[in-house]
Amino acid sequence: MKQENNEKALLQGLARNDKKAIETIYRENYNMIQVLVINNNGSAEEAKDIFQEAMIVLYEKVRSGTFELTCQIKTYVYSVCRRLWLKRLQQLNRYSQEVAGLEASVPVEEEIEEHEKRNAEFEMMDKAISHLGEPCKSLIEAYYLQKKTMQEIAAGFGYTNADNAKTQKYKCLMRLKKIFFAQYKNGNSDG
Amino acid sequence: MDDIQILNLVERYIRGEMNPDERLHFENLRKSNPEIDQLVVEHTLFLQQMNRFGEWKKFKSSLHDTHLRLAEQGKINSSKLKGKAKIVYLWNRYKRVAAIAAMIAGVTTLTVTALVNFLSPNADNARLQELSRDIQNIKRQQNVQGSEVNNLKNKINQQTIPFKAGGTGFLIDGKGYLVTNAHIIRNSKNIAVINNKGDQFKAVLVKEYFDKDIAVLKIDDENFKTMASIPYSISKTASEVAEPIFILGYPRNDVVYNEGYLSAKTGFNGDTLSCQLGIAANRGNSGGPVFNHDGEVIGILSTKETEAEGVAFAIQSKYIYEIIDDLKKDTVYHTLKLPVKSNVRGLDKKQQVKKLQDYVFMVKGD
Hints:
The complex is a heterodimer of chains A (about 190) and B (about 375).
Chain A: H1 2-15, H2 19-39, H3 44-63, H4 73-91, H5 109-132, H6 136-145, H7 150-157, H8 162-190
Helix pairs in contact in A: 1-2, 1-3, 2-3, 2-4, 3-4, 5-6, 5-8, 6-8, 7-8
Chain B: H1 3-14, H2 20-32, H3 34-72, H4 78-119, E1 128-130, E2 133-134, H5 136-144, H6 147-155, E3 165-173, E4 177-180, E5 191-194, E6 200-209, E7 214-219, E8 233-234, E9 244-249, E10 256-264, E11 274-278, E12 289-292, E13 296-305, E14 311-316, H7 318-327, H8 349-356, E15 360-365
Parallel strand pairs in B: 8-13
Antiparallel strand pairs in B: 1-13, 2-3, 3-4, 3-15, 4-7, 5-6, 5-15, 6-7, 9-10, 9-12, 10-11, 11-14, 12-13, 13-14
Helix pairs in contact in B: 1-3, 2-3, 4-5, 4-6
């Protein structure tokens, strides 16, 4: 019972992007995944990628609010990693029979599919923002991601007043939205 | 109103930064102007996506920082293993050479030890003696092994485990599940199995049943490849007295064949768990499979009578089903599947043994 509460608290922390919670989950599960990946044809670097991806799956899951953990975090992370690694091996044509491991696993197909879709969306956004070039990229990131006010931005970027900064930001935003919605529609019609 | 102002209004509206009057005014504007309404819908979607994207990026960078921090503090094995992976790769590349060197060294030592063992008297007084083979000789042999093996082993930080107890085990599921005698690996922290080609794999204990003297192991080694189909089946029924049987096992470092017959349906002092065999079994045969002439496993060789030569006892194979049923209660082992059909039926002994021996392993514990 105590452990269950502990895990609940950890997940709540994770949803808040709490440093301690992330660190605890990381510390308690990473080595297991590294062993899994290295024992199955992978490197430490790949283990890190896979593990972090699984952490993102878990993060998205707890953020969605509907998540009820029906198994231990460990089992969940292990299952996701195992599945992700199998997929990766297949993509790299390094697939060898099956990923061996003794730990229990739970079905995670749906989550991974959702995650991959979201990942594609975010990567699209990332690319769209990079495509803007400077100063647009920094402006957009400062305003929409770091949530700075237009006054702070004007000062930081050396605009004479907030209105100038607003005009520049508006132009950048229009370009970004154009790229974003073009891709968004494409992405949606594809899938 | 220009576009910049409109967008500003839309953003403030979506974020709920407007005061009630402004809000009412804007909502009226939205109702009367479909373009603005469209902009609100579109921008809400965009901002949502932006926010989630921002959180995603933030979380990714926290993960990255956490990894670096934990690796620096040594709380995860990361940086250390980067180097190790390379060495593991080298080890994999050269292990064949190493294995050949080890085998040559092994055969030499074994011959010497076999001679010594043969000449020294057996001081064991217990009437019923477990067939565990003392692997002191292997320990000694490991010391003699070529410097190449030792160097490679040191490089990958693998301590040489001084294995003491040894016996035989056989696969019951191609994914790497073996059964053997529980007494062989009693109190062992490290378990290894070796196939008839001399390849050693790490194994872990899945569960041991001391009442039946059966243990289930799982090979847990990157070099182990799942074996497609197991050529023998496991008999559910007791065999008939006088039925010819044969065994495969590792009383020494090579797989050894021997034949005999089923002499009684019960074991020592009428023990119903086991059956009695008329066969010459040696130390190290313990845990090995007992086959009938159809290539079905009818038992697990476990003990021998010390006062009479050529009498051994085997645990009846139906108990393998019992323990597998027990294991399957755990969802982890749900996929465990015992081989149901023997495909060596009707072949001659030579062919049968050729096919079967790949699935019989030497089991070592420390």
